[in-house]
Amino acid sequence: HPYRYVGITNNIERRLNQHNLGYNKITKPYAPFKMLFSENYPDYKEARKREKFLKSGQGRKFLDSLSK
Asked: Where are the alpha helices (DSSP H) in 1-68?
């Protein structure tokens, strides 16, 4: 599997650009990134719940199913 990044932001274009420019030392070796999937949530709490799910075993299976 290629490197998959799951995260939360209030500006998706800015965040993707930051990752592709190597601003984050953890993700820098895996650049360039491309957006495969995004969702919108009304607040941080709801977005964080979804992020936790997407990082779980079931969430990873869900994301894997999107690329088939």
From this structure: 12-20, 44-54, 57-66
> pLDDT, tens digit, for every residue of 46-61?
999 999 999 999 999 9
Distance CA 36, CA 49 (A): 20
Residue count (the chain):
68
CA 54 to chain centre: 9
Q: Which tokens in the block code for residue 14?
A: 């800015």
By C-alpha distance, which of 31, 25, 38, 26 is closest to 66?
A: 38
Count of Cβ atoms closer than 10 Å to residue 19 Cβ = 19
| Secondary structure class of 62 (helix, strand, coil) | helix
